Amino acid sequence: MLDANAPILIATDLSARSDRAVDRAIMLGRQSGCPVRVAHVLDPDGHETMDPEAIEARVRQVLPDDAGAVEIALLHGSPPSALAAEAERIGARLIVAGVARYNQVTDYLLGTAIDYLLRKASVPVLVVKQRPKAPYRRILLPVDLSAASRQALLVACAMFPDARIIAVHAFHVGYEGLRAPSHTLEETRSENEAELTAFLASPELAEIKGRVETRAMKGGTEQCVADAIDEYGPDLVVLGTHGSGSLRHLTIGSKANTMLSWIAVDTMVVRADG
Fold first, then answer.
1. Are 109 and 38 contained in the same domain?
2. What global pTM score does this model have?
């Protein structure tokens, strides 16, 4: 699943808003023993006039004092495409990036560079929104019983072996607008919980079944994710996508790009193989 020696690639534009992502990437590298490669894409308009050694020195200035041995990569071209290509070239296990900007705690906005990485990168992309204080301990993972959800679960369990993982499955009740009998809700919930249990019992997930807690929640996907975040207080949300790479194909629903903007905690997007 994951190469234990594969590097973590962190993108920085040398601004203060990148600090959280840099700190999280260094923390992940220390936890996993994986090498960390810090990438800075040179200004495509040529406004960075310093020589490469001076720019590398500036990159090292944004690293925490205990960063250890970290590789620096100075890239050329369009930032998102250069980062995606670098991740492919070095066989990265993960790309870590910060949010483009934020207005308030609950209003995170993704920039075009992050959007591109989420669509095109062949490896998971971790969007860091919170200042890292500790390893991830509680991970919320919406599932729709698809191959993409399965892939996201496997990656999350492999990448964060000590974290508690809560798999949430949203369901609707038929004829709810017509005031269906109350027993219909319980029957539907039981059916969905059984499907979720069967999903986790598949051979592909057999090794991680004991690590994953499950919850079937009534309602739309977006509302269920919001409610689950309030209930469980995760420090990371993991979303699975189909291999087409478009945000509209995120398995958690057609409004996934909106969810990526309002989810206030760190969010990792995992593309399904193929």
1. yes
2. 0.85
Residue range of the domain that includes 256: 138-271
The pLDDT score that the predictor gives to residue 120 is 77
* 13 and 103 belong to one structural domain: yes
- 129-132 own/partner pairs: CB under 8 Å, 24+ apart: 129/20, 129/98, 129/99, 129/102, 129/263, 129/264, 129/265, 129/266, 129/267, 130/20, 130/235, 130/264, 130/265, 130/266, 131/20, 131/23, 132/20, 132/23, 132/24, 132/27
d(CA 17, CA 174): 45
C-alpha 177/C-alpha 225 separation (Å) is 22
Are the C-beta atoms of 25 and 36 separated by less than 8 Å?
A: yes
Last residue of a domain, one of 100, 128, 156: 128
Counts for the chain of helices (H) and strands (E), in that order: 8, 12
